[in-house]
Write a structure and sequence with these properties.
Helix content: 25-40%
Oligomer: single chain
Bound molecules: pyridoxal-5'-phosphate
Distance between the termini: 34 Å
Strand content: 5-15%
Number of helices: 16
CATH class of the largest domain: Alpha Beta
Number of strands: 15
Radius of gyration: 22 Å
Length: 446
């Protein structure tokens, strides 16, 4: 028994628990729970003391690894020093310090930061900023928002509306009016087993041009895409695709939003994916790794011109009627500052550049195993796509999730796609262990 395990949860039935688990199969889970009670480095530990490799950095957020003492100390000190301060018409120094520090890492020109508490809130904030920006500049006719099929932008109304995962949308009614979608970029026929950015598909960005012609570009406020669409099962952008989107947006005065809730904070070997792809959007949404997942926080980065557009009324008026009780929460800022220090001291925001070739090689070594129809990767992210079972889409993927857990690894699955994105501190032997586990599972299942 692990010394910090909690014996009271071991063997206890959860079947009648009050907890409505998010994005989970509640009945299945409560019958056969998979619980973790502590974590350290790249591992979780179950209440029984079993060690589990965290193959997906929690939910793509624990980039520096779990329970880092410096971050825990920063949070403890933060909460003991200033537990809360209203962010409306009052400030605290950590908010300003943290904003300046993260803005210094952002792509050139994205110099202002708005704090939120999650990726979903970052998305809502960015969409509202886009609409308001056009309005204050006298272009209030720009009200349409464009997303992309298979996009994931969180779970609030705006994000669900611009999102493109059918299962996340279909039971929630009409969502927002004035939203349209481009096609996704997944193309197994042409791009299966691509290493890094696939060769084919830049022309799919021209869907945006078609939507401009359909709706008239003067009605479109913003386009939002994930540079790498992770939650849907890791769709890496085709070579030239993001650049083409940027050009079309520029041509028509449309704001480009990169949703970097997952791809920021070193996941692709740069602080932001925009830096890796050398395409600068007008706004970037982030969350997750900003505090290493320890305290909820999100942030929206914007170009200076967006911020300045709001600074025109009387200086006795609130410029932007938007914000959250917990925007720039002092404990989140403390967590963020401590996280940033760990990232910087250990070079974690760029470490993936060194790891990526090895990671890619190990991922693609799974080619040829039963049911594997695609392997794709970028940065410290990989996806292994399996052929679905007849009339049971997702069943094979979920079995991989369960069997990997039994063998000592936690892996996210989306349908029949296994997504891997371990903490950025992972070492090569641990990469081997993660892929060996998956190899064993893939050989075992039918
Ligand atoms: C690209 C993207 N946007 C938004 C979100 C939503 O973030 P949150 O769950 O913190 O609200 C996620 C979460 O995975 C995401 O991947």
């Amino acid at each position: 028994m692990n010394e910090r395990a909690r014996p009271e949860t071991v063997g206890q039935s959860l079947e009648n628990s009050a907890f409505f688990m998010p994005f989970s199969m509640n009945r299945q889970f409560k019958k056969a729970p998979r619980l973790v009670s502590r974590a350290e480095g790249i591992h979780y530990y179950t209440p029984e003391g079993r060690k589990i490799i965290d193959g997906t950095s929690g939910l793509w957020c624990v980039n520096a690894g779990h329970c880092r003492p410096a971050i825990a100390e920063g949070v403890a000190k933060g909460v003991a020093t200033l537990d809360f301060a209203p962010p409306f018409q009052l400030g605290h120094p950590l908010a300003f310090e943290f904003a300046d520090k993260v803005a210094a890492l952002a792509p050139e020109g994205l110099s202002k930061v708005f704090f939120t508490n999650s990726g979903s809130e970052s998305v809502e904030t960015a969409l509202k900023l886009a609409l308001a920006y056009h309005r204050v500049r006298g272009e209030g006719h720009r009200t349409r928002l464009i997303g992309r099929e298979r996009g994931y932008h969180g779970v609030n109304f705006g994000g669900t509306a611009v999102g493109g995962i059918v299962g996340n949308r279909k039971i929630f009614g009409a969502l927002l009016a004035g939203v349209d979608h481009m096609r996704h970029t997944h193309d197994l026929a042409r791009n299966a087993f691509s290493k890094g950015e696939p060769q084919h598909g830049a022309e799919l960005a021209d869907d945006l041009e078609r939507l401009c012609q359909l709706h008239d570009p003067s009605t479109i406020a913003a386009v939002i895409v994930e540079p790498v669409a992770c939650s849907t099962g890791v769709l890496v952008p085709p070579v030239g695709y993001l650049k083409r989107l940027r050009e079309i947006c520029d041509r028509h005065g449309i704001l480009l939003i990169f949703d970097e809730v997952i791809t920021a904070w070193g996941r692709l070997g740069e602080p932001f994916a925009a830096l890796r792809f050398k395409v600068t959007p007008d706004l970037i949404t982030t969350a997750k790794g900003i505090t290493n997942g320890t305290v909820p926080m999100g942030a929206v980065f914007m170009k200076e011109a967006l911020y300045q557009a709001f600074q025109t009324g009387p200086d006795t008026a609130i410029e932007m009627p938007h914000g959250y009780t917990y925007s720039a929460h002092p404990v989140a800022c403390a967590a963020g500052l401590a996280t940033l220090k760990v990232y910087e001291d250990e070079g974690l925001l760029t470490r993936v550049k060194e790891l990526e070739p090895y990671w890619q090689e190990q991922a693609h070594a799974l080619k040829g195993l039963p049911n594997v129809i695609d392997i794709r990767n970028i940065g410290l992210i990989a996806a292994i796509e399996l052929a679905p079972r007849e009339a049971a889409v997702g069943a094979r993927g979920f079995e991989v999730h369960l069997k990997a857990w039994e063998r000592g690894a936690y892996m996210r699955v989306t349908g029949d796609i296994i997504a891997l994105a371990p903490p950025l501190i992972i070492e090569k032997p641990q990469i081997d262990a993660l892929f060996d586990c998956l190899r064993g599972v893939l050989k075992e299942i039918r």
